[in-house]
Amino acid sequence: TNLASGSYEVTARAEGWQRQPYAGNVNVTASNETANINYTLQRGSATVAAVSDIPDFHINSGTPVNDLGLPSNIKITLSDDSRPHVGLSWDGGTPSYSPTVDGIYVFSGNLLIPSTNNPANQKAKLDVITGNAAPTFTSAIISGLAKEGNQLTASGIGYADAESDAAGTTLYQWIICETAAGEYVNIPEATSSSYTVKVSDIGKYIKVLVTPVASTGTLVGKGVLSSAIGPVCPVGFTNLSVAIDPTSKQVTISGNIDSGGDREVSVNVTDPDGNVDFTGKTKSDSSGAFNFIYTTTSTATGNFSVELNGDGVSTPAIIKFSSSGAFIDECFIATASFGSKFEPAVVLLRQFRDKYLLSNRPGQAFVNFYYKNSPPIAAYIAGNEVLKAIVRAILTPIVGIVYLVFHPMLAYALIILIVLRLIARRKRNINTRRVAY
């Protein structure tokens, strides 16, 4: 305001912020001088809870600092849930803003309110980007199953560029870790859009960093990280079965190989006396299915052993069948105690045997020992209801553990709940002791 020389009394009020209006004097020393009156408004004990975000500023190269258009005020949230606008005082940027050097400058704005209302000294933040903006992706995804020998494919989703620069050649870096939430490291030379899972990756978790690249302007943007997939599973065989024609003694061995179609599968069959009964090779069809058919010449009685190997399979599969023509797919003791091989607990134990025991040599040795020694024990248990109940009670926690092995996320959740329970119990005990004192 243009004022004549003299002394003036000023009363000021700002709705939504002050408790009491400002009242004081200001001296104007020259006629027609514009008087700037600096005053402070109080809002009791309310403190700053949050400061609103400000979207990035994209500015042309060479723009002077005074022409950046930094906002003069910002909306904040106070501890009393009010949301007033307050003034801002900006610094010179970090690094110090230079209109001749393109880059990203981070400006920090002090809130023009009393320090008592802003004890944490919260500030406004604003990124000023000069020159051509870098391209961006909104997310990254991995396609494919985390299984040994499988090919994984990475994709960047939502490419964008402020100047509409066309996409160039995207950058990729595959990374791996022992645990899903651990510290990931780069997989050497895994820098293309696809990655073939290796034997050494089994049991681990994989992510990919996808970085957008523009064909012109600012070329390389900020990479985005995919979610983890895993743990990586080994390749193996599924749906295995053996059938014997009791009249012709023709044996049919069939199944599927995980690694896919047109894969070589080999078989070696030994009779109960340890003699080789049959060896052969074949190719899986397009779905991964295969079969062997031969006529046994062995006169030995007991359990035959079938060992299967295949392309991309690191550990052979071992299955048994009896000379009577029955394919051995029993958990003898579990079946005896639960009453049927089709009980869910027994089915789960068989699945664990197939996936985690028959896929490695120590497990195969254990299964062979079990098949050899457990039938008479199972027969004794089956005839005694008390023993059946005792064995069921022993096996129930084992079945629970096996279930958690097949459902790791449930296992993680259970561990977290147990830890939280222990923490709560400890706090309760501490509080009880305090009350006692």
Explain this structure to me?
This protein has about 425 residues and is an alpha+beta fold. Helix content is about 20%, strand content about 30%. It has helices spanning about 330-340, 345-355, 360-380, 385-405, 410-435; strands at about 1-5, 5-10, 20-30, 35, 50, 55-60, 75-80, 85-90, 105-110, 125-130, 140-145, 150-155, 170-175, 185, 195, 205-210, 225, 235-245, 250-255, 265-270, 275-285, 290-295, 305-310, 315-320, 325-330. The strands form seven sheets. It has a six-stranded mixed beta sheet with strand order 5-7-8-9-10-6, with no helix packed on it. Strands 21-20-23-24-25 form a five-stranded antiparallel beta sheet, with no helix packed on it. Strands 14-13-16-17 form a four-stranded antiparallel beta sheet, with no helix packed on it. Strand 24 (about 315-320) and strand 25 form a beta hairpin. Helix 2 packs across helix 4 (about 385-405). The longest helix is centred in the C-terminal third of the chain and has 29 residues, at about 410-435. The protein is elongated. The two termini are about 70 Å apart.
Short account of what is shown:
The protein has 437 residues and is α+β, with helices and mostly antiparallel strands.
